[in-house]
Amino acid sequence: MSTESVNGAELYYESSGDGVPVVFLHGVLMSSRFFNEQQPLAEGCQIITLDFRGHGRSEKTETGHTLPQYARDLEAFLDAQGLSDVVLVGWSMGSLVAWEYVSQFGTDRFRGFVSVEQQPLDLEQEGYDHGVFDFDELRGLMELAQTSPHELAWSLIEQMLVDESAAVEQRFFDEITRVPPSITSAILFDQSVRDYRRIVPEVDVPTLVCLGEDETMLENAGVEYVGEKTPDAEVERFSNSGHCPFLEEPEAFNEVVSSFITNRCHP
User: Which of 176, 178, 181, 253 has the smallest count of CB within 10 Å of its CB?
Assistant: First the structure.
């Protein structure tokens, strides 16, 4: 078990392989365990998976559950590990953390960015067509987090996957319910109301946007928006995936990411 102490929190991480460092950032209430299928990438890269504070096997701190703090934790982790010229892979909230990181620290540490199934803002806003829910729906999620965490977990799972086994669904349930309700409420609200539309165009490194075409959680147009607004981006579509193409189509996902790193992410 490997941990790194950053900003008063013990963060769990795993590292394997050698070469270009590729850092995977998971979604809200999830963990690095969902990137097990990406280990074949370690044949040509250094694969690093990290659990945010409060998630997975990282310390369940009472405070610090905001995207700005998660981004500061990421910067401290990269510093402690001596990592530069990294390819950052952000899934769902992981992309939001990446955009928050860019807003605070810029892109000097990056040689590439992979955004998986995320848009810059989840809450519906006037003049913005890609919101996932309105405020009343968000308030309902907040209530579930405090009154019925298991019901919240299953409602999220139903929106993520197209057709996966009961064992995979159970893995999601186990990781979601590992997060204490107080942390769930804090980070789920924070990540849902942050707006990174201004930051997306500031990502000035080669970018791969991965889209699961089955609109289980997000509308395709919201993910396509990221591809349109990022200066040097290409969009890769996964026709048999919902919110988790790295898990639902792992071989295709790994091939696409490996090709992106080899062909686009030069030092």
Answer: 181
